[in-house]
Write a structure and sequence with these properties.
The chain is of the alpha/beta class.
């Protein structure tokens, strides 16, 4: 009888972990940020030396043309986790559509060479993610590659 109760408790715990309504199963989440402060952090951290944001006009920094454009229309939502990872670990996944030699050296993102993790505060990270999230406009495809219709 005791073993049965332990098994039921164990299975219940596993089933609760699979429930999409359980907050812990949603993954890592920072507090909500402020997009306005995120734009300020974008400028303060000099992100616009290598990035431009669709629709945002900033005074250029004299290091050449911005290499990677952020924001604008996209076919899919850039998730919170993707944006956080791209900021704190930019070499994890290099930007699509850009020649590797323009954005990386020896497989490491040029952004990683800026050592932002050593100067950026957690609040700046949170605000940057909020700023970048609102800069994307999702324009979903009419159908997916498997032939199923997309219903907004």
């Amino acid at each position: 009888m005791r073993n049965s109760l332990i098994l039921v408790a164990f299975l219940s715990t596993i089933l609760m972990a699979c429930d999409p309504g359980v907050e812990a199963s949603r993954g890592f989440r920072l507090p909500d940020g402020d997009p306005t402060r995120g734009e300020e952090a974008f400028v303060e951290l000099r992100c616009h030396a290598c990035h431009d944001v669709e629709g945002l006009q900033l005074e250029p920094i004299d290091v050449g043309e911005p290499l990677v454009t952020l924001g604008g229309q996209t076919a899919r939502v850039r998730t919170y986790g993707e944006l956080v990872t791209s900021i704190i670990n930019p070499s994890h996944k290099l930007a699509d559509g850009y020649p590797v030699e323009d954005i990386a050296r020896v497989g490491e993102s040029l952004m990683a060479l800026a050592y932002l993790n050593e100067v950026m505060t957690v609040q700046q990270l949170v605000d940057l993610v909020a700023f970048l999230q609102v800069s994307y406009e999702v324009d979903p495809p009419d159908s997916d590659p498997y032939g199923y219709l997309y219903f907004p």
